[in-house]
Structure formats: C-alpha cells, structure tokens
Amino acid sequence: MIPTVVIAGRPNVGKSTLFNKLAGRRHALVSDTPGVTRDRKDATAQLRGKTVRLVDTAGLEEAAPETLFGRMRASSEAAVSEADLVLFVVDGRAGITPADEHFAAWLRRQNRPVLLVVNKAEGRAGANAALEAFSLGLGTPIGVSAEHGDGLADLMGEIADRVPDNSDAEPAGERPLKLAIIGRPNAGKSTLLNRLLGEERMITGPEPGLTRDAVAVRFTDADGTEIELVDTAGLRRRARIEQPLEKMSVSASIEALKMAEVVVLAVDALDGIHDQDLQLARLVEREGRACVIALNKWDAVPDRNAARRAVSDRLQTSLAQMPGIPVVTLSALTGQGVDKLLPAIRKAHAVWNTRIATGALNRWFEDALERHQLPLVDGRRLKLRYITQPKARPPTFIVFGTRAEQTPEDYQRYLVNSLRDTFGLPGTPIRLQFRGTRNPYADE
Predict the structure, then answer these.
(1) For binding GTP 1, which residues are annotated in this chain's numbering (predicted)?
(2) What are the binding residues for GTP?
(3) How far apart are CA 273 and CA 271, in angstroms?
C-alpha cells in the first residue's frame, strides 16, 4: 500500500499551496479567500524515491456538526484517521493562535505520527515563528515557504524518512477508466459520488455550489474495473460567472471533462433537461467523450412516464448529434437505480473504444452509397472511393474520394447515422472526415 500523508491545519495557512508544491503540479485551487478547499483532494507524489499519497484537507475549524464548516471538519478528521503521517501546518506570519493550540492538542490524542510545518516562514520573523511553534508539543518544527519553495527539500526528506517503505508494493495494474461527473449546481453530483464509493467522501448538503474544485477518487467496482472518478464544481451559464474563484472552479471542471473518457451528466429530474444541461452535453460531444445522463432525484418525480417522455423528446430534438445517448434514472440520496449506472458507464466506454474491421467497414460503405446515390455538386457527381478508421476513442473515420471534402452536410449525417445503426454505436461521438484526391494536372 502507498503511505498516506495528510496535510491539515486551520484555514488559510497555505495547505493547498504546499500540497501543489509537494505534488509537483497544480492539483488544488489556491486563492487568498479563506476556506477555498472543502473536500479532500488526493495526488500521488515522489518524495526522495518514495511514492506517497498526498491528501489536502479543508481547514480545521470549531463549528456545529450540522453546519457546512462542521461537515468540512468531519471530512478532515476522517482523513487524519487514515493517515500514515500528518503534516500539521501553521502560519508563520500570524504566529501560534489559540486555534492552532486547540487542534494540536486534538492531534496528540489521535495516535498518528505528526510533522509540524511552519509555513510562510520567510526571513527573521518566520524563524522566530518556527521557534514559537515548539510550544505546541508536536516535536521540532520545519520552517518552509510553500509559495517560494524555501525549505521544501528538507521537508520532503523528513517525510520520506517518516513514512513506511513501500518498495515491495505490487506494481500498478491497468490504467483506470477515467470518469467525470458534471452538471449544474445542486444536481446531486457529490451525493452520487459518495453513493458510488459507499462512504461520505465529498461534502454534501442543501447549499448549492458546495464543490469548488475537481476532486479525483480511485475505486474498484463490483465488476473488477478500476475507476478514477472525478467530482466537479457545478457549471452555470458563462454570463453568471463573475467571481475569480468560481472562474477557477469552472476551469478545473472543464479540464477534468477533457481528461475523462466517460462523462456522467447529472441532471435534476425534477427540473428536467435544462438548456444548460444541453450545453454541457454538447461540450462533452465536442471534446469527443462518451456520455451517460444520470437523471437524479428520480424518487421525487410525481409522474415518471411524463418525465421520461419529456426527456426523450428534448434529447431527440435538441441533441440530435448524439442519438441513443444512455439515460439512467436514479436517486443518489436513497441509492435507488444507482446499481444501473456503472454497467451503463462500462457499456458507453466499450462503444467509445470500438474499432471496426476494414473489410466490414468498406462493405457497409458500398451498401450505403448504393442505398443513397451521391449528390451533384456544381453539376458534377461526387465520387467517394473507400473509408478507413484510423483510431477509436472516439470512433474516427476518414472517407477518401474525388472532391470528397465537398460532401454536403446532410449526406455526412446520413453516413454517420448509418454507421451508428449498422455497427451499434449509440450515443458516442463519431468523427467523420473527408479527404479529396487531388488531380496533379488540375493547375496545368
């Protein structure tokens, strides 16, 4: 097993900046706004030859359990309970606060190895703050500046010395299926992720927009498939996005979508398919990703037959470029129907990976050209000669022929729809490109 290193501390002491520096790239959102991190965020890092799992956590704050800050603290405490090493971070500029003393005392009771880190410890003031941190009773503090990189080499060495050796760990298996959950705010994305994992991994509640960053979690489903699942911040219409922090959240969500193989579009079944949901589905199609629509909160829908018809009609008229897109009705809150989601995801992934033998592909192509004669363009009939599939993920085809690039859009749609029907490619994006054969004497 890879040892787990959890970064904890009160809000705005620089935990996410330190997390990004140790991980070697920007994984977590960083802002001057206190409390940006709400959910635990993981990353794998190499520190002095040892592989560790880094976990960034929300700031530790005193709050009632039912409040948002109380739920954030519970998530951080759960991460600490699983840690092989806790980095307790304090702010060298602010000095040791009563909150630091309170949580240091709490950490001493958790029976977990703790390494005290004094961040923002630049210059003489930082050195004095590091000395002051001895009073917390957590051993010798290490002064660093995560923002400027000062002291990080010593910190990495100290972490590598304290975590268990994992050199005998089994090598990683096949690459996991990359899955992202996207949707509008309050569609139930985080609740769905928690239901799939079987644990309260993400902060949930009635407040819209709780998730701010794209948070990845790995798990193995009942079928033995390893999945890297990413929960994302809710995506609103661009005109409504004003705050810099929300802009960063949206950027992280779109980046997660681009890195995914299959995207689950979570839709509030009580609202039906909204215009913004369709915009997100079109974005998935443009990025060439497989898509499954999860109609969440299905248990609360009063007339389910009418809701099914409305969703089907809306998709047929407004998402014609992805006919046959799988739709799964479920309730992330109660678990009803969630067992149908992962099989639908695996099937969509298989379709997205489809490769068709060249012989079968060209037999279909000849039949398709016979069924519908090629059109005239500028008074001359097009000549399409053959088709190849250079790649999958998504299925991509190239048609060659004389003036093939002039093929009208309606004939291109006919070929795409015929490909879907003949080879069983529902819902997945299909890329069909046309390349003409140039006459070498045309310019003579």
Answers:
(1) 9-16, 56-60, 119-122
(2) 9-16, 56-60, 119-122, 183-190, 231-235, 296-299
(3) 7
